[in-house]
Amino acid sequence: MLTLASKVENINTVGKAIAGRLKKMGIGNVRELLWHVPFRYEDFSQTVPIGQLQSDQMVTIRGQLELLSARRARHRRLSITEGLVTDDSGSLKVVWFNQPYLTKMLKPGDSIILSGKVSGDLLGRQMTNPSFEKDKADTTHTARLIPVYSATEGLTQKQLRYLIKTCLPLAANIKEWLPEEIKQEFKLIDLALAVEQIHYPDNQTALEKSKNRLEFDEIFLLQLQQQLIRQTLKRVSAPPIKFQEEAIKQFVADLPFTLTKDQKISTWEILKDCALSSPMNRLLNGDVGSGKTVVATIAAYNAALGGYQAVLMAPTAILAKQHLQSINKILPASDLCYALLTQAEASLYDGENIVVVKKSELLKKLASGEIKFVIGTHALLQQQVKFANLGLAIIDEQHRFGVDQRKTLRAKSGDTETMPHFLSMTATPIPRTLALAMYGDLDLSLIKMMPAGRRTVITRLVDESKRTAAYEFINKQLTAGRQAFVICPLIDASDKLGVKSVTEEFDRLDKEIFPHLPVAILHGKMKAAEKDKVMQEFKDDKIKVLVSTSVVEVGVDIPNASIMIIEGADRFGLSQLHQFRGRVGRGEHQSYCLLFTDSHSPQTSKRLRVMTEVNDGFALAEADLKYRGGGDIYGTAQSGRLNQLRANLLTNVNLIKKARTAAVNILTADPTLEHYPKLRERMEEYDTSGHME
Ligand code: ADP
Ligand code: MG
Q1: Per the CB 3.0–4.6 Å rule, which of 61, 173, 274, 510 could disulfide with 241?
Q2: Mean pLDDT over residues 258-275, rounded?
Q3: How far is the CA of 550 from the centre of ligand 1 (A)?
Q4: Could you count the other beta carbons within 10 Å of the beta carbon of residue 366?
Q5: Which residues line ligand 1 (CB under 6 A)?
Q6: Average pLDDT over residues 149-162
Q7: Model confidence pLDDT, tens digit, residues 387-408
Q8: 81 within 8 A of 96, measured Cβ to Cβ
């Protein structure tokens, strides 16, 4: 007896080979098989008499197979199976390529159903490679809306359909976990029915209803999870850090520039949150160069003056060092002791200079509370690191703290009761709908405007015929002292680290285009230390042209770099292109971003041309949503959490809002979901299934 928990091997027709291929797609048991939902449908629901067929119609015909014969094409390695199908109204020729086994499955005289596209004209209509099956009431491949699944090598649509169809009766055993009142309020069908109908819908309406139900589930779970985090944080206490009004005002007045309005508002929102006795959980979102570091520094300075320590964690050692340097420029020469800790380096500000110290010394001063502000990498999460009284944790470019990171940090002050305040920073502009869907547990501070006086990066979509001219232009810039980035896309999915394309491009540029200049390469297969070394050399102007994959973090501030070349630009989202572009235009020189593409599609040019006209990262992110859907905005490098959601969900603001309201309501009434055991169980499953980073 098959159950939902049965391994796929226990399905009659599944042998080792098929089971292995299913596993590759994450399908180990019947339940997972049923949750492998189609990504589109073939509409074969229209049955038409042969005599009334029109060309280019997607149809189903029912008839008798009159003739069937297979032969080999003479000059090619191609097998051709031809048949003739007849009904009361006429006959139709049918051709299949490379399916010689058909003569064993079908015989003249069989009643069959064929679904596919009709081609040809009145003189000779035919169907080529149609789906077929013997006539019966409950069809799997023809005569209805037919599911199309993502498949894998060695596993055909036909096999998947057959397997899923076989197990479909078990969908009835899938337990409902949504409370009845929510189902009624949102007019949602039963979960079991939705799963059954998502594979073999009775009709379009039934399909819409099951899509609705399953999409609601996805959004609702996410919202519920986010609201749970919010609620948990509200119950936890955090040190209220008083707003040090006078000192902060002085600090802001002493800055070498005036804060933008958005910077001021963000700073104010952050300081206000920090003054509360429950932990801040805020995302500071602003384009590259919009001035997030200053805002973070003010928050850290305020914490230090209030008697607490602050930590700023960056994804790489180079970025951490860069933060230290910019913080060093803006923090007033005071007795405030701040430091840097990475895997390889420990240094601190001694009141005058930044000096290298022993790691043990730094750790001691952190534990004693002498160091007020520490900047670093994940090295800060190591066990030896202890704080005296951590009040504020800031994380750069990682979107959010995972629950484990929070716990680790919390434990470091030897205090398990209170939690520090949390601030995440990201330069990826997040459109409002996306923020609503994905970051419901975070409060948002936006820096939308750029500091005054920034030059915009001149962006051009360069035609292949102008490549040589473009290189001449670049060469002139390089000879005048500037530096250039070259970004290469991943050629194929198997080359996850992007070694292949970047190596080819590097060789070409190094040997043929810029043989007179130092060119270097950066890709995902290099060790962290190697990458850091190359970046440092580029920063020190020892390298003129840096050829890099998109998977490598190049978020380093190199004011002298004024050229950004992006190869295969069509492969990137606009937001991603904008991120790359943000690497130049950081210094006094006019900067340029040149986009190349092999694509000749007018749509692609239209999309890429947006880059040449729009400089606002938020606007580009919105445009991305329109052109490519939400899933693409963050590319492959982003957390699994985003990929869970299908793109169309992210643009469905209404659904998101409704799901959020439902989540809030249910948690307000029952904060621990005590009266909703099934929902709670589902949430727990959801939490551990990789949705939480
Ligand atoms: P982000 O981290 O958002 O990419 P940074 O904080 O590194 O941006 O700021 C980029 C540069 O702009 C830094 O050199 C910083 O000193 C400078 N800057 C920040 N705010 C302003 C401002 N309001 N006016 C002028 N320059 C600013
Ligand atoms: Mg920054």
Answers
A1: 274
A2: 97
A3: 24
A4: 27
A5: 257-260, 263, 286, 288-294, 326, 427, 451
A6: 86
A7: 999 999 999 987 556 667 777 8
A8: yes
pLDDT digits (tens, 9 = 90+) for 61-72: 999 999 999 888
CA 375 – ligand 1 centroid, Å: 18
Pocket test for ligand 1, best of 284, 285, 287, 290 (most atoms within 8 A of CB): 290
User: Can 46-143 and 245-447 be said to share one CATH topology?
Assistant: no
State the ligand closest to the CA atom of 579.
1
Q: Check residue 481 and give left, alpha or beta (phi > 0: left; psi -120 to 50: alpha).
A: left
pLDDT in tens, 577-629: 998 998 898 888 999 999 999 888 888 899 999 999 998 888 888 887 777 65
Q: Does domain 1-39+147-174 have CATH number 1.10.530?
A: no
Sheet with strand 354-356: strands edge to edge: 354-356, 346-349, 338-341, 373-376, 309-313, 390-396, 421-426, 281-286, 443-447
Residue-range domain boundaries for the chain? 1-39+147-174, 46-143, 191-235+650-687, 245-447, 458-614
Q: Could you tell me the CATH superfamily of domain 46-143?
A: Nucleic acid-binding proteins (2.40.50.140)
Give the tens place of pLDDT for each residue, 460-473: 999 999 999 999 99
Indicate the CATH number of 245-447 among 3.40.50.300, 3.40.1180.10, 3.20.20.70, 3.30.70.660.
3.40.50.300
Backbone angles phi, psi at 472, to 5 degrees: -65, -45
Q: In the CATH hierarchy, which fold is given to the domain comprising 458-614?
A: Rossmann fold (3.40.50)
pLDDT at 195 over 90: yes
CA distance 213 to 352: 62
- Measuring from atom 10 of ligand 1, which residue has the nearest CA? 289
pTM for the model stands at 0.75
The answer to whether residue 307 scores a pLDDT higher than 60 is: yes
Residue with the nearest Cα to atom 20 of ligand 1? 291
Q: How far apart are CA 17 and CA 24, in angstroms?
A: 11
